Amino acid sequence: MAGVKRHYDGSARRAQAERVRAALIEAARRMLLGDGYAALTIPKVALACGVSSESVYKRFAGKPALVRAVVEQALRGIGPVAAETRSDALGADDLQALLRGWSRLSAEVGPRVAPILLLVQLAATHDPELANLARELDDNRRA
Questions:
Q1: Residues with Cβ within 8 Å of residue 57, at least 6 apart in sequence
Q2: Neighbouring residues of 102: CB distance < 8 A, sequence distance ≥ 6
Q3: For the segment 22-49, what is each residue's pLDDT rounded down to a tens digit?
Q4: What is the reported pTM?
Q5: In terms of CATH architecture, what is 12-142?
Q6: Are the C-beta atoms of residues 132 and 48 closer than 8 Å to each other?
């Protein structure tokens, strides 16, 4: 028995970690939209998800990093987007299709992202780390 190697499959643990991470981001999103940035705290997010504050800090360096994850999730949306509906999959010569794709993207992403971005911009006036995030997001938008 001593020479028998056992294969460890960490897929269940990784899946659980991803579920917890997603729950933390969702709880932070709800709190951010419901109560604003100032009321969002790591202990409140941890309590909402049934984990310790230390567990949240292991995944996110702090409140600004958690808000960054909320923004990134809002920008990504839920699930992959089929190539035929993605504006980046269209040829540059198909201007009408490109404009339709851009309109669809704006209609889908705007309502999901705009409220969060507005809160980030407002909070950035009081939090230097969040100001960096707001500046980075603005630079990316303009690029």
A1: 42
A2: 87
A3: 999 999 999 999 999 999 999 999 999 9
A4: 0.77
A5: Orthogonal Bundle (1.10)
A6: no
Contact 137, 117 (CB under 8 A): yes
Residue owning tokens 């089929």: 82
Residue extents of the structural domains in the chain: 12-142
Q: Tens digits of per-residue pLDDT, 91-136?
A: 556 788 778 877 887 788 788 889 999 999 999 999 998 999 999 9
Nearest to 25 by CA among 143, 116, 137: 116
Structure tokens, 13: 């643990």
Extract the tokens encoding 118.
């507005």
How many residues are recorded in the chain?
Answer: 143
